[in-house]
Design goal:
The longest helix is centred in the middle third of the chain and has 22 residues. Helix 9 crosses helix 15, helix 10 runs antiparallel to helix 11 and helix 12 packs across helix 14. The chain is α/β, with parallel strands linked by helices. Strands 7-6-8-9-10-11-13-12 form an eight-stranded mixed sheet, with helices on both faces.
Length: about 450
């Protein structure tokens, strides 16, 4: 089973660009970085040379003794068993954050040997960079790998439904026969989430219990990362925050409170632990916007924020929500105040817009789930986890600020009326295209 990842096209573009630099893929553990690079190497190159600095620590010696890229390539060719050829061999450095010298050497590959195709991956690279590890700024290309989106999930679970969505070019109601099928596939996605191994377990093997095991194993691997890469005094703090996320999101306003992590917890004691989770790609922090104006980042209230996880499958498993909920109407979407659905929408928005979304609140009067900045417009977003679309908050915001466009996600059908577009939840991955469609046609 081969999941069609949209980032694959970006990898091809990187290979063919005349200004190509060594590539660094960033993303949390288990999102598919290694598979992407290996598959890219097999499909687009004559050869591939794979090196892992975590499982092969002896490789570090090659980078400690020299910065001569030709000599490094010779040594790596000996380990590989085949000569590494310019332009024809993809060289993969996995878990590169484990070798700071190799990171530094990317500068010299960029300057002295651009003919070699070097692609790197690091599940904790964000953590390494946040700690001041020397990095060849301006000498590498970056790409972010996210969990598999619902659109990508459809590529293996129902290609016909994906084709239907891909060919929508106007805002018209989706026929019931397709709408109901898409909702059912969307429920299945909420069970596996976007972790490739979990999707294989669910879609290819049809094994829900095994999907549960896969997700738990991933959670266990994250916990091992906490203990392996964090000082002993911070490990419990990271665990406390990580396991508190379901209860944080279950609150009515979902605002992150350190007191929910542990009785008596204070921000100055736990802030570094939260930053570790964010830098590791395991969590997103969404700040309150004091004013919905441009640029959004200029109006962040740094004392008020919400914290979401990287993936709804991980959040569901962390929450101990049983997959049996899939047969109980829309319970998967509405459980603990729609937190799974809201988390899913954030994941989708993060992949489509340059900045992490914000949220907006007017005291006890109203609260809008997300704000995104698109070109020079601020778009308010309301997330509804069912067919109930009543929203005093969004109506209040629209009356107060008169946005050019507002978005509501729900289980209602596709509709655009009075500058408000209702997007079915399962179409969230097409938000950017829908905005462009509205700009052109309405």
């Amino acid at each position: 089973m081969k999941i069609q990842r949209t980032i694959s096209e970006k990898l091809k573009s990187w290979k063919n660009t005349s200004t190509r630099k060594p590539l660094v893929l960033q993303g949390a553990r288990q999102v598919g970085k290694t598979w992407l690079l290996k598959n890219f190497g097999m499909e687009e190159f004559e050869g591939m040379a794979y090196f892992n600095f975590d499982s092969q620590p002896e490789l570090k010696q090659f980078f400690l003794t020299t910065k001569d890229t030709k000599r490094i390539i010779q040594n790596l060719s000996l380990v590989n068993g085949k000569t590494i050829l310019p332009e024809k061999t993809l060289v993969i450095f996995d878990e590169i954050q484990e070798c700071n010298e190799a990171l530094n050497t990317l500068k010299y590959f960029c300057e002295d040997s651009p003919e070699y195709c070097i692609a790197c991956a690091g599940s904790l690279l964000g953590v390494a960079m946040s700690r001041g590890a020397s990095f060849p700024v301006g000498k590498v290309d970056f790409m972010k790998v996210h969990p598999v989106s619902f659109k990508e999930f459809l590529s293996v679970s129902d290609a016909k439904l994906l084709s239907f969505l891909e060919n929508i070019d106007s805002i018209e109601p989706i026929p019931d026969v397709f709408f109901s099928q898409l909702v059912e596939k969307f429920k299945a996605y909420f069970i596996s989430g976007g972790m490739p191994e979990a999707i294989v377990a669910l879609v290819e093997k049809g094994d829900v219990p095994f999907t549960q095991i896969v997700l738990q194993n991933i959670l266990n691997a994250y916990a091992l990362d906490f203990s392996k890469h964090v000082t002993n005094k911070d490990v419990p703090k990271i665990n406390y925050i990580w396991t508190s996320l379901p209860s944080q999101l279950a609150k009515e306003n979902k605002k992150f409170l350190y007191q929910t992590v542990k009785n008596g917890a204070r921000s100055r004691d736990y802030e570094d632990a939260l930053l570790w989770l964010i830098n590791a790609g395991l969590a997103y922090r969404v700040f309150l916007s004091k004013k919905p104006s441009l640029p959004l980042s200029a109006y962040d209230d740094l004392s008020c924020f919400k914290v979401y996880t990287l993936d709804i499958g991980i959040l569901r498993r962390l929450s101990r929500l049983d997959p049996i909920a899939i047969v109980e109407g829309n319970r998967l979407f509405t459980e603990f105040k729609g937190a799974l659905t809201e988390n899913y929408i954030l994941e989708s928005l993060v992949q489509q817009f340059e900045e992490i979304p914000r949220y907006w609140s007017s005291g006890n009067m109203a609260e809008v789930d997300f704000l995104v900045q698109n070109k020079n417009e601020i778009i308010p977003i309301e997330v509804k986890s069912d067919e109930n679309i009543r929203s005093k908050s969004l109506a209040f915001f629209r009356k107060e600020f008169s946005p050019k466009l507002s978005i509501r996600y729900s289980l209602r059908n596709f509709k655009y009326d009075d500058s408000l577009v209702n997007i079915p939840l399962f179409m969230a991955d097409y938000t950017h295209e829908i905005i462009e469609m509205i700009e052109k046609k309405y």
